[in-house]
Amino acid sequence: MEIGKILKDVPAPLQSKCVAIETASNYSACLVSQTEDTLDRKSLLCLTIGVGRLHDPPDCLGLAELLAGMVAMQTDSTIGLTGSVRVADDRTEFSYKITSSDNVSKVLKQLIKSITTPEFSANRIKHLIKKEKYKQQLSSLNWLQRCSGNSSHPYNRMVQPSRRTVELFQIEELCDRLAEFHKRHFNSNCRRRMALEDGRSTDELVSLTAATKFDFSTPTDSRVRSKDQHPLEGSYTALGGTKIRGKRMNLGGIFIVFPLPDQTDLHKQSPDLLVKYLFGRDGLGSLKEYLRTNLGVQLDSASLTDTGCIDFDTFCIALHCDETTKYTVETEDLIISAVFRYLAMIRSQAQHFEQLHNEVRLDRRAHFLPEVDDWSSFLKLKRLPLVNDEFNIATRLHRYEIADVLSARHLLSSYSAEEMNGFLACLTVDQCRVFVSDLDWHTEHVCLFSSPDGRLCCQPDGIAPYNLEKLSENLLALCRAEWPTASCQLDTVFTLPRPRPFVCKDFSLKPRDSTNQPNGPRKIKRQSTLDGSSSSTNLWFRQDDRFQTELAYISVDLLPPVDVVRLALASSLQISILANLFSEELADLKMQAVEADLELSVSRSCSGIQVCCSGHSEPLPALLLAALGRIAELRVPLNYFNQERIGNLRAQKFSLQPCSDLSQIANRLDLAGFLHIQRDYQSLDTQTLDREVEINPSSFIAHHFSNPAHATPLERENWPSRPELYAEILALGNLTAEQVISLVDSITAVLPPLSRRPADTFRLDPFFMRCSERLLPRGSHHFIRLNFATNRSIELTSRTTRLKKGDAALTKSVCGLLLQMPTAISGGLKKQASKYDDFFFRRFWHKCCLWLLKEALTLCTKLPDCTKRDLRWDTMIGCNANCIVIELVSESHPVAIETTIELVIACVGKTVDSITKEQLAGMKSRVQQLATRLFTAPNLNRQHELYWRHITCGDYDFSWDTNSLDTNVKAILDRISKKDLYNYWKKWLKQGSQDRRVLSVHKINRQQFTFNAQDDYYATYQVQGIEVRSLDDFKQNLQDCIPMQTASLKDTFNS
């Protein structure tokens, strides 16, 4: 098939991509590629042709249904699958769910062949007629609407009793009739549309479609026109404001129906969705709540009826009674009055329509968000199926342009008052038809209409199968009255829903920067900082130039002054408690954010409290400022940090992983390589390291987060120092630099006064925090003894297990080794470093070596299985130093466990020394994949995580953020030989090396090893170092790191 036009970047639902194709023969296809693998994934093929029941000749009804049944039988018997076929008034639908993608082409080709060249088999015709397989069943409501409407309208023709059906014809004559009908409509005079959903790429689906032969001639428009008249109009039997009561039938409820003009062209505004939204809401002041509570009536739906594309539409409000409700005419009138008073309330609130429309617009876009990984998990949305009650792809194929098939009525445009007022003008009591039953609603029998003979299954004898009942004048007057009416009690019941304050109004993409952006986010200098002084705000910005989404991320890290943060335990404890407090205080704001499809979070950062929000860019500034304003208004007294909260924090922060002790010790020592670890307060059970922490006025830091404008003079007088706060701000996504700068000015006005001091005395920048990172002494081995509390839990394997008293696992102890290596390159790698960016090469050379050593661990064959299972080997990639943390849980004493860990390290060295070229190549390949996974962002969410982690750690190196990352990493890996890797292990990891820097933490099980037993173990513990008894004293003797940004290559090589 020759494809005339390919429409790419067609809006597609979550986990999907879509293209549309068009041909000159009026054949169009919507091709949907599933982007997420699922175990139950199936391909869906749906093909519609513009021929339906309305195309049947008057003297032979049922031809369209019979021919569709024959096509389906012919296809099913050939491909061995059973599809579904449905004949509507204006179209015929064929659908197949295909388990294997390989069969899609086969099914499509056979279906096209059956449609273009059907076999008019006498046996198949006899089978269809005998089994009545060609008959379609519709609801009694549909039948009652048609038979009570204008009898001259083509839509209502099919319910007129007729004996001229396909059953009356001889098989030979019927074959001729079918051939003539097929030639006139199916083969040359119909509109053809196809939808194909499959796991293959869109390019593959286009190729598959192009390879399929379609023997269709150029058709003409075969749609049945209704002469701009609704089938419910133009008849004296269907006057507005009338009840139409079916005789001896059960409709299953009461249905208030409004005739509408064709709404197809309004799919970008869809004013009916706003009314549907208001009718669908529940809770106090809603119609649903009132009907359920006072009348025992359930409001099922209020929506457009799916009537296809035949020049008219219908809006239907469907209700049914509970089993306990007595069904009477009075009940019907009460329901009708409640519905129209609710409509009157809606009309009176025109000033709120735009806000409500934006809420509907936001909800409808949920399945069409621009990035799958960013939002599907947050909103907990599943992939939108192409066939369900709300989304019928077959109807959409026939009704909308091919490029709008998926997005119509979902991606709405801005509010139109004209369209909304025009729609509400149709929802009046004078234009409605109320369809009711003369049987009790609880009657089990539900009537069904069967085509093409035009009869109901229990159609009563007589000319009129229904009664007309004009609504009473009092009821009509009440329904027509303006809102509010003092005499109507209902007008005091109904209210509009509470507005959602952060709903997005602008979903457009902001103008893109014309110039190429540098790696990572760029630091923006605001005009207020160009006067020679340094502001306490770092503003980082990057416009989304990769994913072209409507989303944005804005994050703020609030940091007290460095000298306050460096008070270690007291400050860290307060920051953790304050983070919990702020999160609790903003709980309602978080819920409002969720209602607007936004996300707001407040949590600890490395050295402060971070406030992050994400979602559509337009409402984010308002959400962020509201959150920061709440934080600035809080006044936290000194006694808030009492011992009860401290105890709760200890219990909360106790980790199930034993490495938390080692990591927290490394944090408190400011060891380089651990800056990115959150500085939470950790209780360490040890004689020498654990101590009570008291919060006194000199160490009180909560006032730094409060705006003095909201404090009393007495509170300000009792504050120990002037409030100062530092802010790291990252803005990423669908934003412009001008918007971000304006936002920072607003943040400055909301928060406590951000300090502005001369640059030479300014020490709040995280750069200076990195200056205080420390290195363990070269060639040293220090150790720390901790007591293990047996009433707590530890992680025995990769699976976290909660231990109970009496469990055998309580006999286990833990030993962890921390090996630290400065990020420096020396020896033969100097020449290689000159070919790359100095900083990038040095960091990634270390990263690759560490990752390769971890890969070598998996190749060790002489380690016991229990050791491999219980061993934990982590790499901490820092800015000025990297660390390896090796931990092992065992029933042995930590001294013996450390001996085992040293054997593991030695085994890694032997493995590296003996690996083959093939093994080394496999290790490098896995490391390459790891680097790509860790430093490549597949979506905006991951990109924000990477940027923000570096910024909050004070690590402003973004040299990894480049499209050539894979190439650069591969080049580094290619230059790491087996000898280089072995020398790296020998220099930094091998026991006895002069360059090795080791800190070991022994967590001893008190239940198994008493103090005397410990002394016996440590009497024979031979180490080149001393036991650490005071972290503060030990910290003072550690060497400061020189930040790599200020170190020249020469200095680094000579270090």
How would you describe this protein?
With 1055 residues, the chain is an alpha+beta fold. The chain has four domains: 193 residues, Metalloenzyme, LuxS/M16 peptidase-like (Cytochrome Bc1 Complex, Chain A, domain 1), CATH 3.30.830; 209 residues, Cytochrome Bc1 Complex, Chain A, domain 1; 196 residues, Cytochrome Bc1 Complex, Chain A, domain 1; 279 residues, Metalloenzyme, LuxS/M16 peptidase-like (Cytochrome Bc1 Complex, Chain A, domain 1, 2-Layer Sandwich). It contains 34 helices and 31 strands. A seven-stranded mixed sheet has the order 1-2-3-8-4-6-5, sandwiched between helices. A hairpin with a 3-residue loop joins strand 28 and strand 29. The longest helix is centred in the C-terminal third of the chain and has 21 residues.
What features would you highlight for this structure?
1055 residues; alpha+beta; Cytochrome Bc1 Complex, Chain A, domain 1; 4 domains; 7-stranded mixed β-sheet; 6-stranded mixed β-sheet; 18% strand; disordered C terminus
Give the SSE layout:
Elements lengths: L4 E3 L8 E7 L4 E8 L8 E7 L13 H17 L4 E4 L4 E7 L5 H13 L5 H10 L4 E4 H8 L23 H16 L5 E7 L3 H9 L31 E5 L7 E8 L9 H10 L6 H9 L1 E8 L7 E10 L7 H19 L5 H12 L7 H8 L13 H7 L17 H8 L8 E5 L10 E4 L3 E2 L9 E5 L2 H8 L41 E2 L9 E3 L1 E7 L7 E9 L2 H4 L3 H17 L1 H9 L3 E6 L4 E8 L3 H14 L9 H11 L5 H10 L44 H6 L7 E8 L3 H14 L5 E3 L7 H6 L2 E2 L5 E8 L24 E10 L7 H4 L4 H21 L6 H6 E7 L3 E10 L3 H21 L2 H19 L4 H13 L12 H10 L3 H11 L9 E8 L5 H9 L11 H6 L2 E2 L8 H6 L1
Parallel strand pairs: 3-8, 9-13, 19-23, 26-30
Antiparallel strand pairs: 1-2, 2-3, 4-6, 4-8, 5-6, 7-14, 9-16, 10-12, 10-13, 11-12, 14-15, 17-19, 18-24, 20-22, 20-23, 21-22, 25-31, 27-29, 27-30, 28-29
Helix pairs in contact: 1-2, 1-3, 1-5, 7-10, 9-14, 18-22, 25-27, 25-28, 27-31, 28-30
InterPro entries: Metalloenz_LuxS/M16, Peptidase_M16, Peptidase_M16_M
Protein name: Peptidase M16 middle/third domain-containing protein
Keywords: Metal-binding
